[in-house]
Amino acid sequence: MKRSIILGLASGLALASGAMADIKIAHIYGKTGPYEAYAKQSHDGLMLGLEYATGGTMEIDGEKIVVIEKDTQLKPENGKALLAEAYGDDEVDLAVGPVSSGVALAMLPVAEEYEKILIVEPAVADSITGSEWNRYIFRTGRNSSQDAVANAIALGGKDVKIATLAQDYAFGRDGISAFKEALEGTGTTIVTEEYVPTDTTDFTAAAERIFNAMKDIEGDKKLFVIWAGGGNPMSKIQAMDPSRFGIEIATGGNILAALAAYKEFPGMEGATYYYYESPKNEINDWLVKEHMARFGTPPDFFTAGGMAAGLAAAAAIKKAGGTDTEDLITAMEGMEWDTPKGKMVFRAEDHQALQSMYHFKIRVDDGVAWAIPELVRELTIDDLPIPIRNGK
Asked: Per the record's keyword annotation, is Oxidoreductase included, yes or no (predicted)?
């Protein structure tokens, strides 16, 4: 009887030990809502990254990786509560997400409170690794400054006159602020700025204000648009014929579904975070091949980002020799790792991942459903002087 009890206790302890040995990662992201497509790509990429990093075993040093999904529904209060739940009740070792910058900003203090790592992917606002940053935050996604500096290189120049249109929240305002800063010294003039609600579908009033500000000035005139989600401002403003005022529309890259609208803009230039044909490396080759085989489409904008986050998490755990938070921070500060975009580096000062961007020119092919952002040149880490904005 005693032997049975002892064996039972030993068995229970072994099971408990095995359960405790699991590496738990929470993916907290907007599975439902306007950014649902971004979210799916991010999660697919995260799982592919963990798979690639572990050679398909989904284990690190014999410990099983368990990914717990939580849906923020794009609500900041949900993101905050779900991250606390993940760190507290679920006892995850680290978390990844979210999609929205507004949700991310609500989540940052929770990571600091629980003293646990949050890998931000793909939320973009500069303030995430800037004014609102804390030492538990690492971001694999690009920030607004990386978008801005890359687009400034692609678009700026002497006698270039630019109007801007963006959504009136952290992503849009941080993006335009960084874009303006990046253009300083290039000879480019920002003529006017328009900010509209995130759910805007009628751009008539904003466009008319832009046209009135731009119509009587001389120079190479562009309307630079920063936008996420629906609404399709570029096509709607293009239908208003900005060319009658000598204005060309310009923007950065986007997901494949959104690139369909770019077919109206052959020859348009800008800079993008990722397009599956641009990077040339072994990991991207694997991603393209596997994504085509499993999903029947090329990997998209946020698939690459999700994969970068998965690869970063696995690389950090391997380097740290476990999931202790302080060991992970030590391992991740300055860490270099390979991604579908090539090398990324977590900058020690703000934990922002430095990475390549891609200067493109739109090419239209009737046999392809979307416009092709054909590579002009890769903008490497050394080409992109990204400011440190956290005051450290």
From this structure: no
